[in-house]
Amino acid sequence: MANATNMKESYESMKLLLGKIKYDDYKWKLRGDLKVVALLLGMQLGHTNYCCFLYTQDKKNHYVNKLWPKRTSLTPGEKNVVSPPLVLPEKIYLPPLHLKLGLMKNSVKCMDKIDRGF
């Protein structure tokens, strides 16, 4: 088996890792960045139409709608789910600081660089 430093972030690697730590025996709560969460839930990586594993999306109302219906299933072949989930969504904690820093980084990228406020 390849050592951990040579493992790629992939669905297969996550499946192998969860098997090695006997996740099914303990059912720990997990935390990871959004890429790791997507891998654990069997979702397609990269640019997707339905990138959020929590809520469905409607592009027409993307900036209008404030409340989104909760996803009811993670069925492979539907809405960018490519593999069966490795863990239950309720067993995953989202890292709030990581998300907040990512949002701030994207906000700064969008700012007008010649404005006095920048």
Question: Care to give the gist of this entry?
Answer:
By secondary structure, the chain is mainly alpha-helical.
Can you describe what's shown?
It is a single chain. This protein is mainly α. It has one domain (9-110). 31% of the residues lie in helices and 3% in strands. It has four helices and two strands. The chain has a two-stranded parallel sheet with strand order 1-2. Helix 3 links the parallel strand 1 and strand 2 (92-93). It starts with 10 loop residues before the first helix and ends in an 8-residue tail after the last helix. The model has no long low-confidence stretch (mean pLDDT 77).
Which key phrases capture this entry?
118 residues; mainly alpha; 4 helices; extended
SSE order and pairing:
Blueprint lengths: L10 H10 L2 H4 L3 E2 L2 H7 L51 E2 L2 H15 L8
Parallel strand pairs: 1-2
| Basic shape | extended
Mean pLDDT, nearest integer? 77
Number of helices: 4
Stretches where pLDDT is under 50 for at least 5 consecutive residues are none
